[in-house]
Amino acid sequence: MLxxxxxxxxxxxxxxxxxxxxxxxxxxxxIENSAPTIEGGRIRRDQMAECGHYDRWxxxxxxxKEIGCGVLRYGPQLHTTLRGPGLHDWSFADETFAEVRRLGxxxxxxxxxxxxxxxxxxxxxxxxxxxFAAYAEAFARRFPWVQLYTPVxxxxxxxxxxxxxxxxxxxxxxxxxxxxxxxxxxxxxxMAMQAIVRVRPDAIFIQSESTEQFHPECPDSLIHAEHRNxxxxxxxxxxxxxxxxxxxxxxxxDNGMTRExxxxxxxxxxxxxxxxxxxxxxxxxxEHIIGASGQSRWAGExxxxxxxxxxxxxRYGLPIMHTETNMDEGPRGDESxxxxxxxxxxxxxxxxxxxxxxxxxxxxxxxxxxxNTALREKNGTVNPRGLYDLNRNIRAVxxxxxxLIEGWKPVLAQQGHCLRLPVTAA
Length: 426
Fold this sequence. Notes:
Layout (H helix, E strand, L loop, with lengths): L19 H4 L2 E5 L6 E2 L4 E2 L2 H4 L2 H15 L3 E4 L3 H4 E3 L2 E2 L2 H12 L3 E7 L15 H15 L5 E5 L2 H9 L11 H25 L4 E7 L2 E4 L5 H10 L2 H7 L5 H9 L4 H15 L2 E6 L5 E4 L5 E3 L6 H12 L3 E5 L10 H18 L4 E6 L5 E2 L12 E2 L12 H20 L11
Parallel strand pairs: 1-4, 1-15, 4-7, 7-8, 8-9, 9-11, 10-12, 11-14, 14-15
Antiparallel strand pairs: 2-3, 5-6, 12-13, 16-17
Helix pairs in contact: 6-8, 7-8, 8-10, 8-12, 13-14
Protein name: Beta-glucosidase/6-phospho-beta-glucosidase/beta-galactosidase
Pfam family, one: Glyco_hydro_1
GO molecular function: hydrolase activity, hydrolyzing O-glycosyl compounds
């Protein structure tokens, strides 16, 4: 159904919210909804379709409860819901979010996950921020009981894969296109937060962002590693109104960002920061080795989640949620379980040291398709990294996560010291 608004309760308190405070520590999973385009826009990699969620959404939502998660990273697909300027098809969202609410699951609503509708084109379109902000406001008005949002998922990866590495969407590789993608993506995120807060003044935003580290391979690569280690902060620096370093400011100005565009972030972001939780995503591919030529390759885990996340916390001083991780089960079938416990151990070390970590996420609920090639090739390869396989049978890591939740949830609830809300929850 297009744009027929349901009746809205008169006050947020009447909405039966499961607030952050009621949840305590946030044990989460997610429904993978990446949807970039490849091959010049001819192919859409809609992971909800490829992983069977459109046909099995009721079953999937029931599995979230079965595994013990109280929180779900989830959202309607932007490319199927935003049909034109101000034109929305809410039919799938109406059904699924009604079931999410009935089950008592707390959603963190993911509004843009790596792709835009065909009629918008790609992240080079300067109209994207305003169009997206209007969409975010329309969603908030239609679902006023929702409090938690990730407006644009992984802003850094969105820009890097689309306009630096040339893998997705606009598939460009020049600095000017990259800076254009960064400023459009982050501006869209900031404007969406502003729009949502107009509807839901106590909204909370969890910036699910890839946490990165670049290691110099040799003395000649130091300058390249220093640049990339400054660049990794660009999206969050702009999003939180944190002043970039002088080299990054010159880089932005040299590649098309105007002083007024930069000042927009400095003016707009600080008022929103109190609504924010910094979400950190961590995979075995998040650390890189930089060679003398400036080319990078994956390093595997060198520092690990806790060390790199500490750098981000020191920079922004915000509460943290571990918002994504996974690992293939491997030839022995237990690599994903080992990775789960490794991530949990790093998280607990940070909490021990006083870093306010509010939650943990295994992403995603089910196995994924073709992420071994970052969705660049449509091969139909199943990546065995979900809590459940694509037949919805629980995996070993799913049972391990279930045990982890059962064991730690009451302990963390008793501690009760970590949860510090940026704004008062309804």
